[in-house]
Amino acid sequence: MFEKAIEDFRKNGFAVIPDFIDSGFVEELKKRIHELVDNIDVTKEKMATDETVNPSVDIESADKIRFFFEKEAFDEKGNLKVDKHKALFRIGFALHCLDPTFKRLTFSDKVKALVKELGFESPRVAQSMYIFKNPEIGGVFIPHQDATYLHAVGDDLREAGIWFALEDATEENGCLSFIPGSHKTGLHRQYVRNEKENDPPFVFTKDNPDYKDEDFVLAPAKKGSAVLIDGLVDEDFVLAPAKKGSAVLIDGLVVHRSAQNRSAKGRPIYTFHLYDDKTCKWDPKNWLQPTAINPFPNLFAN
User: Fold this and answer.
1) 4 vs 16: CA distance, rounded Å
2) For the segment 71-102, what is each residue's pLDDT rounded down to a tens digit?
3) At residue 169, what are phi and psi to the nearest 5 degrees?
4) How many CB atoms are located within 10 Å of the residue 75 CB?
5) Over the stretch 267-299, which tens digit does the pLDDT of each residue have?
6) What distance in Å separates the CA atoms of residue 255 and residue 275, rounded to the nearest whole number?
7) Percent of the chain beyond pLDDT 90?
8) CA nearest 97: which of 255, 302, 241, 236?
9) β partners of residue 153
10) Which one of 202, 236, 278, 290 is at 20 to 30 Å from 122 when CA atoms are compared?
11) What is the C-alpha to C-alpha distance for residues 199 and 53, in angstroms, rounded to an integer?
12) Beta 141-144 vs 88-93: how paired, if at all?
């Protein structure tokens, strides 16, 4: 069913699959997020979302539905400058465990068929996120490999993300861009628990490489698409637009990024990350670790 996408994924580290989700389900997903945001208390949920965020916030969110705001959504006094529906950066990291609507997509028969074609034997879903990329204030994602933050260990490493476009993802509103083939260059650095006391709780093992713009390619995605994500210099990146309803498959080791959204159109997406527990094991040095609420459920067993 997904032969061409799997071929592209193996070659480039990513693949765009149009029309993965039907329009009705796309709207259902967005409606559910709207309901969740309606019910939040901004005074309790307000927190930073850039690199200065306290790492403990992410740890505490590993098995919760937690709301993160864009830094630019607040004025110098800490008050919201825009409606809360337009102020959010992401929701993480356990939608796949705690919300029935997103659980239904994550563990759908179509997703299972795709992951099975990828060759996964015992796929476990480690985390999930809804990323808003709101109009005019949607933040940048710097070049990175997903495996930097979500790493498994083994000779046969199988890690991937699936990224679902809930509106058209274009160059204007910050679609993904990739360095094709960079998933074959190994893990560039890792974000790990720091064993030294009285130091930052998490550290990078190396500085970020100097990726070139010309190495990236865009990956546009139509609304409803899914993107498979594999997880060096800017000129290597290519854009990957995705239509609404598309899925983008992303290898855990492929280098990718997205620009700020300064357009008038949002770029909401849902994504989750998985690894094959049959061929590799979760790294105990990762910031994210399984809990009773988020035990990294097996995709095929749910």
Assistant:
1) 10
2) 777 888 878 888 999 889 899 999 999 999 99
3) -100, 115
4) 9
5) 999 999 999 999 999 999 999 999 999 999 999
6) 17
7) 65
8) 302
9) 281
10) 202
11) 15
12) unpaired
- What does the alpha-carbon distance between residue 84 and residue 237 come to, in Å, rounded to a whole number? 33
Q: Which domains does the chain have, with CATH numbers?
A: 3-286 (2.60.120.620)
- The band of 225, judged by pLDDT with boundaries at 50, 70 and 90, is low
Q: How much is the mean pLDDT over the chain?
A: 89
CA separation, residue 92 to residues 15, 33, 57, 63, 128 (Å): 24, 12, 11, 8, 6
Q: What are the pLDDT digits (tens) for 18-69? A: 999 999 999 999 999 999 999 998 877 655 454 444 555 677 889 999 998 8
pTM metric for this prediction: 0.90
pLDDT at 10 over 50: yes
**Amino acid identity, residue 6?**
I
Instruction: Sheet with 176-178: list strands edge to edge.
Output: 141-144, 256-258, 176-178, 212-219, 234-240
Angle between helices 3-12 and 109-117 (to 10 degrees): 50
Strands 234-240 and 212-219: parallel
Alpha-carbon distance values, 7 to 103, 112, 249 (Å): 28, 18, 11
